[in-house]
Amino acid sequence: MNIGKAISYVFDDERWVTKVLLGGLILPIPILNFAAIGYTLKIARNVAYNNPQPLPEWGEDFGDTFIRGLYALIIGLVYALPLIIIITLLTCVFGAIAGAGGSEEAAGFAILILNCLLYPIAIIGGIGTWLLVYAAYARYITSNYSLGEALKFGEVIATIRSKPQPWLMLLLVYFLSSIIASLGMIACFIGVIFTAFIGQCMIGHVLGQIIAQQGMTSTYAPDTPNYDPPPAY
User: Fold this and answer.
1) CA angle 90, 93, 98 (to 5 degrees)
2) SS3 string of the chain?
3) pTM as predicted
4) Is the dihedral of CA 52, 191, 76, 2 positive or negative?
5) Tens of pLDDT along 114-136?
6) Where do the structural domains in the chain lie, given as residue ranges?
């Protein structure tokens, strides 16, 4: 895995300034920023299939990029649902215990136990969910953007279990991208929106490398819109 290339490729593009500026402006805008997620997936696809210019043009099918980002959000929410349910249930149970304790000491003890449970669950569960989401993104990309393929939970879990090292490396790149994003805040607060977008581009590149290295590109079909309807729950 070439981490250096995941950073430098952005600046190798002749139009990187325009693309990063547009991405940085779109990223903090609610709803519109779904397109930034879709843009990241397009980068991953371009890298996976050896496109020499991984950064897409923003003017190419913006609506398509937006829809792919919206579906990526749906994927993330579905995989986060178990963790959300667990945290909500624990909060409700211990909140009820604290309310029925009859004393401040009992309520404080219940809240302490809740915090002791929630922090490790949130951290471990959050990391696990993040890894599953990006493995699902890989299937989403390599199945010609099929939402149904991305939501095959058993196969997504098997993808990580078979070769966990690249996915853990992707997690490290995520933390590295967070550091890069913070540099914009240090240099100039407004700059964080642009460095944050560069961090997104890094993650997209590494995800594309993983897809190629794991041979997932063999399922590739021509890049035509193919949107499955969201599943009914």
Assistant:
1) 115
2) CCHHHHHHHHHHCCCHHHHHHHHHHHCCCCCCCHHHHHHHHHHHHHHHCCCCCCCCCCCCCHHHHHHHHHHHHHHHHHHHHHHHHHHHHHHHHHHHHHHHCCCHHHHHHHHHHHHHHHHHHHHHHHHHHHHHHHHHHHHHHHCCCCHHHHCCHHHHHHHHHHCHHHHHHHHHHHHHHHHHHHHHHHHCHHHHHHHHHHHHHHHHHHHHHHHHHCCHHHHCCCCCCCCCCCCCC
3) 0.84
4) positive
5) 788 888 899 999 999 999 999 99
6) 3-219
